[in-house]
Amino acid sequence: MWTQTEMPFFLSNPKWPSDSNHCTWYGVTCSKVGSRVHSLTLPGPALYGKLPPQLSNLTYLHTLDLSNNYFHGQNPQEFSHLNPELIFDVLIIYNDLRGKLPPSFSNLLSLKNLALARNGFVGEIPAQLGNLHYLSYLQLSELFQLNLNNRSGYLPQNFGHVLPNLKNISLASNRFEGLIPNFISNASHLQYIDLAHNNFHGPIPMINNLKNLTHLILGNNFFSSTTSFNFQFFDSLRNSTKLQILMVNDNHLAGELPSSVANLSGNIQQFCVANNLLTGTLPQGMEKFKNLISFNRLSGEIPDIFGNFTNFYILAMGYNQFSGRIHTTIGQSKRLTDLDLGMNRLAGTIPRFFGFLVKIMTQLETMVLSGNQLSGNIPKEIEGLSSFKWLLMAGNKFNGSIPTNLGNLASLETLDLSSNNLTGPIPQSLEKLQYIQTLNLSFNHLEGKVPMKGVFMNLTKFHLRGNNQLCSLNKEIVQNLGVLLCLVGKKKRNSLLHIILPVVGATALFISMLVVFCTIKKKRKETKISVSLTPLRGLPQNISYAVLDLQQSKASQSFSSECQALKNVRHRNLVKVITSCSSLDYKGEEFKALVMQLMPNGNLDVSLYPEDVELNIFIDVASAMDYLHHDCNPPVVHCDMKPVNVLLDENMVAHVAYFGLARFLSQSTSEMQSSTLGLKGSIGYIAPEYGLGGKASTHGDVYSFGILLLEIRVDENEVLKVADRRLIDNYQYSTQSSGIDDHSSGIGSNTHSIRKAEECIAGVIRVGLCCTAHQPKDR
């Protein structure tokens, strides 16, 4: 070995000269009589080379341990020449041996411990290993570490019968497949079973006779189950009273967790059924487990059982469908390090136990509450949990301001408060977070200046998009993070002006509205729209874009309202928005645009009077309004229905567009509806009650639609041009009985068509007049 390993270890070790007594060499133990080598133990001195076949000459060897070295090549066949009655232990883990596992190991009949993990063996386990009747420890993998063995095939079906003394079997991280043989229940001395990270499938075998079992690790396979099978499996573990670790995570287990789960060993320290397809609720009796880890499809309210979980350190119940609230008894878990309740349906506020946690929960490092429906303020007491490293609260309904001293969490590495309703400034204390890697405050309602120091100097570590009131003096932040450029030198106004000016402005606006309504002429006044519609060069012909004129008042607010309104609506008569863009143009000025489906026939504003207008257009508009008012949750009020906002596609099908003034209607009477005192809409189409500060309602849109209908101006010679032949036929079919056949020709036919067209137009006008009734309830 000295010559074949070619390593300086032996040369540098004074006890390895070639002419000295071998029993004094490092790692060598000899017998008292005859100086025969009993043990060669060299784990980890960084030896490399090939295993010398001369090792087989050590015929009195009991233990061979060459673990944690760099031996490579084939496993010597000469190992089978070791004394089969004396050799007990062969440990060669963490090397780089290759080839097939030699069947010659089966000749070592007295072998008790065989560990060959973290090598590069291929092929199947030789069936001859069944001859090792005294084998109690078989390790072809290593728990929780990447295993470099590449074993494959099936486990021999007779393992349980031929290896009755087996206590520890570790075959993780290989490519074994098929069903697990029933040897598990026959090897009654088994204490440790690790078959994780393989390709086993089918049902998990019943564990009936393993009274000494402490670890059962079957995760990351393809096991499947049903509710009835779950009952049988967990019930079969009833006699395994020493069980400490049970991991069946990352499989395809389905059905419900049975009540027999509560019958598991009271010594359970880790119970993991994560990433399966389990459904139903948590069974009663789970309170005796110290660690509960579950990522499934479990539902219902989380039971208030955490007062008994005083020793557990991980509570991971994310990615389920749990509802209800967070129980305050979680605060009694003194050793808790990881709390994951994310991606559920939890509601309510965060319990006020954080002040208590500061005193007793000194080890809590991770708290995940993202993806729920939690609301209320973020408790100020959270500032005292100095052990935090991960704090994820995104995708909830939290409001109020960010705690001022949140930057006191000196160990914080990830802070995600995005997609909430937080307001106020960004706390200056966040500049002190030295170890922060990700700070996400996007899509809230934060305002004020962005801090300039600490994490805010590295654009790759923080995210602020979706906060329209934030500004920065740093042009790089403005350009890359979607915030405004702060105006330098702008003086603060006297606080009294904030009271006087709105009152004076509202009064003047009210008077001006009265004057406007009294002087409206019959002729429709054109209102300038701040959007231009153009085919987008380089993209398909059915794509266009609408660029917002940000020089006009409240243009950015209109853009945000339009994006919000169109985010979840889908209807054939609503304009299809493909995407949106909010950035800076080549001049460094703010640029906002909507990319939408091209409408080649323009808008209804240019089609009210031509001869090819069809009344079907107004049916399309009515269909879109009906969808917005009755099929959206919450209902959407357009607030600016007029001809220029009705676009026409190539088939003259109408599409309602431009939701810059749209409002969402609250279905709760306790919530305040927004006032229309700001005169939302366009003169000539706005409902009268809006001019008096009435609340936005669907009646206002109906009024605007009525004005659209009444704007169809036709004379006696244009009746037939307005109402085409197809519409007349449809109107005639709907108004006459099925038994009457009234078809004529010549002059009589023409007179009949004109009369039917006049009736049709009269009906449309009656609808328009009903829609424009003075009282909203009469429309």
UniProtKB/TrEMBL annotation:
SMART domains for this protein: S_TKc
Gene3D superfamilies: Phosphorylase Kinase, domain 1 (3.30.200.20), Ribonuclease Inhibitor (3.80.10.10), Transferase(Phosphotransferase) domain 1 (1.10.510.10)
Bilayer topology: Single-pass membrane protein
Protein kinase domain sequence ranges: 498-779
Source species, domain of life: Eukaryota
Record key words, sorted: Leucine-rich repeat, Membrane, Repeat, Transmembrane, Transmembrane helix
Name of protein: Protein kinase domain-containing protein
Organism, scientific name: Glycine max (Soybean)
